[in-house]
Request: fold
Amino acid sequence: MLNRILVLDDNQDLLNIVEETLSYENYQVLVTSDSHNLIEIAKIFRPDLFILDYKVTGMKSEEICRQIKWHPQFGRIPVILSSAYFHKDINYVTMGCDDLIAQPFGLDELVGKVSNLVSAGA
Reply:
């Protein structure tokens, strides 16, 4: 069975690239821009990893990450925050994320981070 990656971003071009790249690497990928229903989507999809845009439209990413980590079904699922706007004075780990990836990112970097976190959770 393929590992499942759920990606939340409001940039459709980025979603297309991430979906194509991770699908090519033999992951089952579901992309969405629906921040308000992410937990419901996750309940159906049952991801092995989340990738969240830090500056997504709608709910704040900190709140989404906390919802994931506090949820009994998803608390142990790794979360990668992705953004072009990381600030040095914010402790992103306290939000519950397991890794960060700065945009723009290389596809090798993306695949490496995903692979490391999925392998660690297996």
